[in-house]
Design goal:
Blueprint lengths: L12 E6 L12 H5 L9 E10 L2 E8 L8 E5 L20 H13 L4 E8 L8 E12 L2 H13 L4 E5 L12 E8 L7 E5 L8 E2 H8 L3 E4 L19 E3 L2 E4 L6 E6 L6 E4 L1 E8 L2 E4 L2 E2 L5 E5 L11 E8 L4 E4 L7 E4 L2 E5 L5 E5 L2 E3 L6 E5 L3 H8 L7 E7 L5 E2 L4 E5 L3 E4 L2 E2 L14 H9 L4 E7 L4 E6 L11 H10 L2 E6 L8 E3 L2 E2 L11 E2 L2 E5 L4
Parallel strand pairs: 18-21
Antiparallel strand pairs: 1-2, 2-3, 3-8, 4-6, 4-7, 5-6, 8-33, 9-38, 10-37, 11-35, 11-38, 12-13, 12-29, 14-15, 14-29, 16-17, 16-27, 19-20, 21-26, 22-25, 23-24, 23-26, 27-28, 30-31, 30-34, 32-33, 32-34, 35-36
Length: about 525
């Protein structure tokens, strides 16, 4: 058990299950526990430790399997396009065609490296055929990371790009673990607190999940949506997808991607897909908006408008661009709006134009807002936003059926792909931009391989379920995206989606980070978090 969960004594109830054997006589396992999680080889030991955080809120730690005695480390070499590659000038990547991989492996063997080419086969999902993603090249099998690192250094000296990797992260269904998973369950029938999303003091900056929880006095919380990390992709901390906080739409959706919808009472939690429409009106005219509270011209995860480059479709971890944009800013964005070429109409709390700024960027009046224009939209905003004129900035969400979505009293957090729909596996990496044309290496690293994950959904009893799975270590293998769907379904989720994972994956309970975030620096500052607040009445 993680030391962060130790010392709770009689408040804990522990359930141990040997999946292939006989369950212990006392306490009697529930049917779901008797089956265990669908991870790894048959016959793995699984323990579940549950405690109550507040009325209606429980926290369960699940540990399945055990750390392998013979650790299998290897070195993965970037594969350049070979002479017979469809694109021999393409930069080296983790996966290439078989001929390129065979050519590199043979060249490495000829220079004294124990190289092999391996076909990477991935399972099918609801909207992706799966099969062979491509071929990788690996060198050696080592009993320790340090030995693999030494071989990686030798490859580097020979001019090859390479990385050290643990084969337990590959997703082999025969692996013996371990997996370490935390499950936070909020039962609306007994819950008297509040379930709410938080982005911190302002939208654009990042804070750790634990800092967000502490500032709100939360009893528990998890990291939530995808966000901008690189300043070249926008404002770090800005949601990279839909963001509704306390009923206010502060970030537009990546068109059609799924999101988690929660209410303060924890009743009616659901997953839906969203689009949006926004406009600025005045003097009988209207201009369409491109976005809300983000740096103009930069659309993280894409899924914007038809004139965005290279695509208007969702494309995960890609920053699309658009030179001609109109972006609305709220007081929640930050101390200053983004600076740059273009025009900014500054509005007071009544929507009246108080100033026109060019270049754009600066502070807003108390309770005020603004609209920024770039490129060809500068002339349009100039014609509309006359000083003293009252403008109306409007924007609203539409659900997957095209119906307007009322947001009062809700939090909506971006995610993807979908994992479970109506109790059945429903994994949608193609629709949500994780299957990328000409770039199978992205899917390989992001979805096929095991990583830390944060999942969310609702079960058949209407309970909100938040899940974190540690990864990127030999002590916790993590989950692939298909495995995430199987785990969500095994935990009884009727509908589920993937939230931001990797180094962002964090769960907090009673003021402590209870999982093991994978970043070398420790807990990662994130864009937002979903928090469980106690009953203060």
């Amino acid at each position: 058990m993680n030391s962060r969960l130790s010392g709770v004594g009689a408040a804990l109830s522990v359930l141990s299950v040997l999946v292939a054997g006989t369950a212990p006589a006392s306490p009697a396992p529930r049917p779901a526990a008797r089956q265990g999680l669908p991870l790894g080889a048959a016959g793995l030991t699984e323990t579940r430790t549950t405690r109550t955080l507040q009325p209606g809120v429980t926290l369960t730690r699940i540990v399945r399997g055990a750390e392998a005695q013979a650790r299998d480390w290897t070195v993965e070499v970037s594969v350049p396009g070979g002479a017979t590659s469809p694109d021999p000038d393409a930069p080296p990547s983790a996966l290439k065609d078989r001929a390129s991989a065979d050519e590199l492996a043979a060249r490495l063997r000829a220079t004294g490296f124990d190289a092999r080419a391996e076909d990477v086969v991935t399972p099918a999902t609801a909207d992706f055929a799966g099969g062979s993603l491509g071929w990788r090249v690996r060198v050696g099998r080592f009993g320790s990371q340090s030995a693999a690192d030494a071989e990686r250094a030798r490859l580097g000296a020979a001019g090859h790009g390479a990385s050290t990797t643990y084969t337990g992260w590959d997703g082999d269904p025969a692996d013996r673990g371990p997996w370490r998973i935390d499950v936070l369950t909020v039962d609306p029938h007994r819950f008297r607190g509040t379930l709410a999303a938080s982005y911190g003091p302002d939208l654009e900056n990042r804070e750790t999940t634990s800092a967000l929880a502490a500032a709100a006095g939360a009893s528990a919380g998890v990291n939530a949506g995808f966000f901008v990390l690189d300043p070249k992709a926008g404002a770090p901390g800005d949601p990279a997808g839909v963001g509704v906080y306390d009923g206010r739409l502060l970030s537009e959706p990546v068109a059609g991607r799924p999101a988690l919808v929660v209410r303060g009472s924890a009743r009616g939690t659901r997953i839906d897909r969203f689009t949006w429409q926004g406009r600025i009106t005045g003097a009988g005219r209207a201009l369409p908006l491109d976005g809300v509270d983000r740096v103009p011209g930069l659309i993280r995860n894409c899924g914007g408008t038809a004139d965005d480059t290279p695509t208007a479709l969702p494309r995960h971890d890609t920053t699309c661009t658009d030179a001609d944009e109109l972006i609305a800013f709220t007081p929640q964005f930050g101390a200053r709006t983004p600076q740059g070429d273009g025009l900014e109409a500054v509005l007071d709390r009544h929507g009246r134009v108080t100033a026109l700024r060019s270049p754009r960027g600066g502070t807003l009046p108390p309770g005020g807002s603004s609209v920024q224009a770039t490129g060809s939209d500068v002339a349009r905003l100039t014609a509309l936003a006359r000083p003293g004129r009252q403008l109306h900035v409007q924007g609203g969400l539409k659900d997957g059926s095209g119906r307007p979505v009322p947001t009062a009293g809700t939090s909506i957090l971006n995610g993807g792909p979908e994992l479970v729909r109506d109790g059945r596996p429903h994994v949608t990496p193609t629709a949500d931009g994780m299957v990328q044309p000409g770039n199978p290496s992205f899917y390989y690293g992001w979805a096929h391989k095991r990583n830390p994950r944060t999942l969310a959904g609702v079960d058949a009893a209407g309970r909100t379920v938040l899940v974190t799975a540690d990864g990127r270590s030999t002590g916790a293998l993590g989950l692939s995206i298909p495995e995430s769907a199987r785990v969500a379904r095994a935990l009884g989720l009727r509908d589920a989606l993937n939230l931001d994972g990797g180094g962002s994956t964090t769960m907090v309970a009673d003021g402590q980070v209870i999982n093991d975030p994978s970043d070398a620096a420790g807990e990662r500052p994130v864009g937002d978090a979903l928090l469980v607040l106690p009953d203060h009445h």
